[in-house]
Amino acid sequence: MKCWISDFKFGLAVLALLTALFANAQERGMEISGFRVPEYDEKGQMTSQLFGDHAELGADNLVKIEGVRVEFYREGETFMKVASSHCFYDQKKRMAHSDAPIRADMEGVQLTGTGYVMDARARTVQVLDKSRVVIADIMQQTALDAEAANAAVSNVTEITSQQLFLNYDGKTARFVDSVHVEDPELKLDSGSLELRFSENNEIDWIEALTDVRILHEGREAYAGKAVYDLKTDEFLLEDQPKLVEGKNMLFGETIRFWRESGRMICEPAARVVIYPDGKFKPEIFEN
User: Fold this and answer.
1) Residue 109's pLDDT is what?
2) What are residue 236's DSSP bridge partners?
3) What are 153-165's pLDDT values in tens digits?
4) What is the DSSP letter of 138?
5) How far apart are CA 227 and CA 241, in angstroms?
6) Could you read off the pLDDT of 38-92 as tens digits, one per residue?
7) Is the pLDDT of residue 280 over 50?
């Protein structure tokens, strides 16, 4: 799956448009209604437009904008829309903030949340509360055949958390506090979750930290840290990991899984607790 964070640069683009809109506005109380600000590339193609119902320049060059809407274009087609009821833009700091809900929609991705901070200098966007991201199935990047890929077209992965931090230079998306992942193949809960992106703009690394719990078809995995490398299809559980199926349990300092093959390595000091008539199934992440 292509890196949604590389396309999801609405925060920085919005700040650039706001700067252009009020570049010559120096008088406090200046107001604009029903405005539209287009942005063009070096070839003269429109790349985005900022729409607003009303904007007013207040104290300390702080601009309040109501009815914020942004559209982004690629090859003449709209590929993303962003909307928020209002925001405040600081021209000096090149930062925008709001306590209002925000929503962004693009092909295969939807982001919603309440409250946000956009920092053009740091090239970051922070969603402050009730962060929710729904994207095309993350796990499907490792599908080995076209039939499996086609079968998963309708699958989505939903990630919710208290806050979300997007860092464009670092190519990371970090979900913080009460993280929950709902995926067609598994469920995950943790204190934090970080997605990292490759130079090819694809998710290639997922790391969950603090009280990690993974549930798949009645089998559970627990650890202080869980890492999934999409390039190798490997799960790594560390920090007192254990696998649980009914009463049966597997312990070790590290536990490794490969989803497609079902292979598992537990080392060192592996310990298995199996109750009579119990059968432990290591394929917890197997499709």
Assistant:
1) 85
2) 227, 256
3) 458 889 999 999 9
4) G
5) 12
6) 888 888 888 888 888 998 887 777 888 899 988 888 888 888 889 999 999 887 8
7) yes
Under a CB-based contact definition with an 8 Å cutoff, are residues 180 and 189 in contact? yes
Q: 224 near 210, Cβ under 8 Å?
A: yes
- For 68, the token pair is 């914020």
From first CA to last CA, the distance across the chain in angstroms is 18
CA distance 97 to 86: 9
| pLDDT at site 153 | 46
CB-facing half-sphere around the CA of 61: CA atoms within 13 A: 14
Is residue 91 a contact partner of residue 69, using CB atoms and an 8 Å limit? no
d(CA 72, CA 9): 10
Distant-in-sequence, close-in-space partners of 5: CB < 8 Å, separation ≥ 6: 166, 168, 171, 172, 173, 195, 197
Give the residue carrying structure tokens 């432990």: 280
Residue 226: CB atoms within 10 A of its CB come to: 24
* Residue of 94, 86, 57 whose CA lies nearest to 69: 86
Beta carbons of 65 and 51 less than 8 angstroms apart:
no
- Those residues whose C-beta lies under 8 Å from the C-beta of residue 163, and which sit 6 or more positions away, are 126, 127, 128, 129, 131, 175, 176, 177
Q: How many CB atoms lie within 10 A of CB 151?
A: 12
Beta bridge partners of 166: 125, 173
The whole-angstrom distance between residue 73's C-alpha and the CA centroid of its chain comes to: 21
Is residue 108 pLDDT above 70, yes or no?
yes
Structure tokens at 119: 């920092």
Quick: pLDDT tens for 249-272: 999 999 998 877 878 899 888 888
Tokens standing for residue 24? 């010559």
Cα separation, 167 vs 90, in Å, equals 20
Please tell me the pTM assigned to this model: 0.80
